[in-house]
Design goal:
Elements lengths: L2 E5 L4 H13 L4 E3 L11 H13 L4 E6 L3 H7 L7 E3 L3 H9 L5 E5 L5 H13 L6 H15 L2
Parallel strand pairs: 1-2, 1-3, 3-5, 4-5
Helix pairs in contact: 1-5, 2-3, 4-5
């Protein structure tokens, strides 16, 4: 597995925590920024990660901003992305198991670093169940391809 990661100015601290986790788990990653505490625009950081995941260059992406909302909305504009905004461990497991999410979004102003690590580790180590969920994902793909 190879992971793309990014944050805006509101997610720098948790991004550093997640980078540390990825290193501990020996998961290769590339960091797409940002490296400042000055206000920046979250789409500028969400888009490269989402595009890299959608192209297959990276298997998964992790995005962090103040709430996670802007990053998740931005990432989900990219065809093929299923970005889940997660602030609890159960949802992290279920979004992989049932939705085959390929991008995780979190909010630094919503959760602390310890919980963020636990969420990310659960999400990274959870598998997609397939089965009855596959037909639902197929419907999402059909909606996406129809442009509706």
């Amino acid at each position: 597995m190879k992971v793309a990661i990014a944050s805006d100015h509101g997610g720098i601290n948790i991004r550093e925590e997640i980078r540390s986790l990825l290193e501990e788990l020996n998961i290769p990653y590339e960091d797409f920024g940002c490296d400042c505490e000055t206000s920046v625009d979250y789409p500028d950081y969400a888009l490269p990660v989402a595009q890299k995941v959608a192209s297959g260059e990276f298997d998964r992406g992790i995005l962090i901003c103040g709430t996670g909302i802007g990053m998740s909305i931005s990432a989900n504009k990219v065809k093929g992305i299923r970005c889940a905004l997660v602030h609890d461990v159960f949802s992290a497991k279920m979004t992989r198991a049932h939705n085959d999410s390929n991008v995780l979004a979190m909010g630094e102003r919503v959760i602390g670093p310890g919980l963020a690590r636990e969420i990310a580790q659960t999400w990274l180590q959870s598998d997609y169940e397939g089965g009855r969920h596959a037909k639902r994902l197929k419907k999402l793909t059909e909606i996406e391809e129809s442009g509706q």
